[in-house]
Here is the input.
Amino acid sequence: MTRKPFRLGLTGGIGSGKSTVANFLAEAGAAILDADAISRSVTQAGGRAIPAILAEFGPSMITPEGALNRDAMRALVFSKPDSKRQLEAIIHPLVGQILQAQTETAIAQGQSCLVFDVPLLVESGERWRRQVDAVCVVDCQTETQIQRVMARSGLSRAEIERIMAQQATRAQRLACADFVILNDGIDLAQLKQRVHEMWLSFGL
Ligand code: ATP
Here is the structure.
């Protein structure tokens, strides 16, 4: 019989270093399941959410290539906030199904640790908390987040602050954490070391 794997929810604010931590965990031997990547894939051209989005919102929300028209959807959500919930009602169950299938595959492969990379884990309330054994928060100072995202994306400080204002606060995230990776004032080699120490503490 296959042993039940350890399920870790990995989260953190924009630019905190989640993807980098996920990569180090993968190197250590974890299977990474990326909720955002799945969410993007179902809204790409030919994605599984496209027929329902077309039926619910009409052709103006679909690009000529057949993907979700993100600009049009952003404008709609701005003018009709309820449409965000309607869109999520289409996307979330599909993401859930695909994650479930990926989880079953990882278990069948005998993986001992499944890492669910979920940027908005804390914001989702109990929905995600119930599905994992522990939560790891990648934490850093707000200013560090802003500097990293500005360097990476070319977004302005104001745009990044707007995104951060829609995310949970540091304190809210830390209140949900079983493990905290403090990713401030350290280089990537030191971050890798911290991730490795956490990995060893799982005792897998
Ligand atoms: P997002 O939520 O925007 O996807 P994220 O939390 O996944 O971001 P990463 O993509 O892992 O964050 O990191 C953001 C950027 O900061 C990357 O370019 C990464 O290489 C860099 N970075 C993260 N941690 C460190 C560190 N300790 N030292 C140097 N660079 C770092």
Q: What stands out?
A: Residues 41-110 form one domain. The longest strand covers residues 6-12. The chain has a mean pLDDT of 95.
